[in-house]
Amino acid sequence: MNQLRNAFFLSFFTLLIPCCTTAQDNKFESEIQAFEAKDKQSPPPKNPILFTGSSSIRLWPDLQQYFPGKVVLNRGFGGSVLSDVRYFADRVILAYKPKQVIVYAGENDIASSKLSAQQTYENFVDLFQYVRKKLPKVPFVFIAIKLSPSRRQYWPVVNEANQLISQFLRKQRKATFVDIRPSMLGPDGQPVPALFKSDSLHMTDAGYQRWAPVLKPYLK
């Protein structure tokens, strides 16, 4: 009997361990907890236009000044991939009951995780379908994966992933693919160096100044 009881408890706690540790094991858990702590100290606006994704969102300085008259909220976390945004979607998207969702992610999937365009696309679809299931009437915007000079070798994969995502979103209701790539190119057809910081990856204010007017017509 004791052996049977011990086997039962061992099986029970073995099942519990993954569910209790998965969130803790995610490297972004502390950032998400910081958002939640900040929300308790200073409640976020109701029904905002919610921006989330990787560092191109996280590092966007003062979203509000770029979109006056709009209620916006930045919940980007740098270094994230699409599956991270999906993993934390309940806490960085759904928790805020947004009127619109804006996502920039996928660049790290390709350059850091070395995923193919198809794999990146599939991760995007997983995120989109989850958000759409939970927020069926909320408009969804995906910002095209940018062409970062420091990641030039990945441009073919980036362009293919963008094409797959764009084609998918064209078939969805209340879903938009916003292509910011042309706005970042100079007369020579190459990304303008001044739009990037010294790492040729993250953007300067000038880069965001190129993005804002492209995005603005799509904000609700």
UniProtKB/TrEMBL annotation:
<dbReference type="InterPro" id="IPR036514">
    <property type="entry name" value="SGNH_hydro_sf"/>
</dbReference>
<feature type="domain" description="SGNH hydrolase-type esterase">
    <location>
        <begin position="61"/>
        <end position="210"/>
    </location>
</feature>
<dbReference type="InterPro" id="IPR013830">
    <property type="entry name" value="SGNH_hydro"/>
</dbReference>
<dbReference type="InterPro" id="IPR051532">
    <property type="entry name" value="Ester_Hydrolysis_Enzymes"/>
</dbReference>
<keyword id="KW-0732">Signal</keyword>
<dbReference type="Pfam" id="PF13472">
    <property type="entry name" value="Lipase_GDSL_2"/>
</dbReference>
<protein>
    <recommendedName>
        <fullName>SGNH hydrolase-type esterase domain-containing protein</fullName>
    </recommendedName>
</protein>
<feature type="signal peptide">
    <location>
        <begin position="1"/>
        <end position="23"/>
    </location>
</feature>
<dbReference type="GO" id="GO:0004622">
    <property type="term" value="F:phosphatidylcholine lysophospholipase activity"/>
</dbReference>
